[in-house]
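Run log, item B.
One chain of 112 residues. Sequence copied directly from the ordering sheet:
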Amino acid sequence: MLVGVLEVTLSLEGNRSLKGKRKVISSLLARVKARFNVSAAEVGGQNQHELAVLGFTVCGSEARILNSVLDHLLNFIEDNVEAQVIDSFWDCSAWVESREWGGDDPQAPGKD
């Protein structure tokens, strides 16, 4: 399994409150989740009203497809948000499956 991760830093210049920021960010995250079927969250800058760091993840079996989704997602954000993208980073990596979970914890998922 491959996991694609995109981190986008937005500048909300001129925004004067966390309430105004929340309105912009929650609207964007809802539209992105509906359109691209990705996981999305604000992952940084929560207490700054002029800065937001957003994280997105998608999984699949082909890096080419994941990279395309992340590229289209970044373009969508740049074209559809009342903020300026000041930084972005994405990576597509293999996730190594491990059947080991929780060591000796009998309550860990997968333990009988």
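Observations after the first pass:
- The chain has a mean pLDDT of 87.
- Helices lie at 18-36, 63-80.
Flagged for discussion on Thursday.
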